[in-house]
Structure formats: structure tokens, C-alpha cells
Amino acid sequence: MKRIFITLAFLVCGQVAAADSMRMAVTTSFENSGLADVLLPAIKEDLDLEVQLLVVGTGQALRLGEAGDVEAILVHSKAAEEAFVAAGHGTYRREIMYNDFVVVGPVADGAGIADATSAADALTRIAQTQAPFVSRGDDSGTHKAERALWAAAGVDPEAAGTWYRSVGAGMGAALNTASGLNAYVLSDRASWLNFGNKSGLGLLYSGDPALFNQYAFLPVNPDKHAHVRNDLAMQLENWLTSPQAAELIDGYTIEGEALFVFNAVAE
């Protein structure tokens, strides 16, 4: 009888000690970078918190937050994030880390974008030569940034011809399509560095301030969704802005090159 009592007590304690779980919508570029594989185990170890990622484009991530389907969002489109908070769907926006966008394309570079003077000039050269270009076309942060760059170049690519291919997919799929078509594509640097199918493609243009790519954390407003675990979102935010997270984010490299720079400001 004593042994049975001890076994039952262990099971009850095991249930009580089970890890908490929360949902966070993240961009496909964050997932494709491989950083999630570094951060999630550390979060589990430090907080005993299971973070379930819903990997989608920024637009879809924000819609999941608006519906109360996640506790928090980690995305990279400042104007859309600010609109989300202004509408009351999120409590605030807190910057976590950044990298940059780059223009990838065939190493032969028929459009000559390696000599471009700006990102808008690079896209203008692609449009003028009608070189194949792959767009994510998925309302993601990367897609929003790409549309802004085309607007700066004074080009409406969707009306310009068949050289512009919209795939309606994540960053990895867009890069794979560009590889298959020997086409140009806008990518975040982290996804490009972690991309395995680089055959025939190279990083041809970067460095324009217009290509800056900030990632931010947005807790979903619990006043609109009583079931949302805001307490867990706060625990995660505190960890993501901590020295432990800074060390892991800044220390994450591929072939010696850092993929992100931590820039969360202490509060």
C-alpha cells in the first residue's frame, strides 16, 4: 500500500510540475533562419515554458493575434505592427533584434545589380532587363518590404510582365523557386545564409538603409481575449530581452557570419 501511495503521489506531482505552454505566431523568415532551434530549448530550460510556434507570414501572424489564436507575435513590419497596436489588438510593440534584407540572384547577374547605387536602383535594373524575379507574394514582412522598394523604384511589377513571379509562399519556398528559375529574389539575410540550395545564386546587393529589417515582439491584448495567457507572454518577453537571449542571438552564426543583432532596450 505504501508503494502504491508513493506512485500516485509521484503522478500527481508530475502533473502539477508539467511545463506551461503558449502559442506565438512567428514569420517564416525567423523559422528558416534556424534561430528558433537555438532559442526554444533555452526558453524551456530557463522558464519551463513550451513555446508553440505558428509559422506564417507577418500579415497572417497579425490576423492570428487579432483573433486571439496566439498569446504573442514576433514579426518584422513596423507599420503593420503599429497599426495592430493602435487598433487595440496588441498591448504594445517591443523591438528585439534586427538584420537586413538582401537581393539574391544568379551569379552571372544579367541585370547588373551588383553595381546598383541603391536598392531601388537594383530593382529598376531588374525591371528594365525583365530578368526573372520571384516575389513571396504572401503579405509577409518581406513581401511588404519588397513592395515598398518597388514603389520607391517607380515600378509596378505585377503589371509589367511575366518576368515577375509571385509564389504566395514562405521564404524557403521563394528561395527554392528562385534557384530553380535562376531568378532574383529579396530575402532576409538570415534565411539566405541558412539556405541549403544555393546552386547558381549569390548575394548580389545589400547595404542600403532601406533594407534594414527589425523584428519586434507584440503581446496580444488580453482585454479582448480573456483566454489569452498574458502572464506567459510576459515571461517570454522578459526572457527575450534578457542578457541570456542577447548572448544566444548575437552568438548565432553560420560559417562565422552573425544572422541577427540583439537590440532590445532594458525597461
Give a summary of the structure in a few sentences.
Helices cover 42% and strands 24% of the residues. It is built from eleven helices and twelve strands. Helix 6 packs across helix 7.
Describe the structure.
With 267 residues, the chain is of the alpha/beta class. The protein has two domains: 2-98 and 215-262, D-Maltodextrin-Binding Protein, domain 2 (3-Layer(aba) Sandwich); 99-211, 3-Layer(aba) Sandwich (D-Maltodextrin-Binding Protein, domain 2), CATH 3.40.190. The chain is 42% helix and 24% strand. The chain contains eleven helices and twelve strands. It has helices spanning 2-16, 28-33, 35-47, 58-66, 78-86, 119-129, 141-153, 171-181, 189-193, 230-240, 243-251; strands at 20-27, 49-56, 72-75, 94-106, 133-135, 164-166, 184-188, 201-205, 212-219, 253-254, 257-258, 261-262. The protein starts with a helix and ends in a 5-residue tail after the last strand.
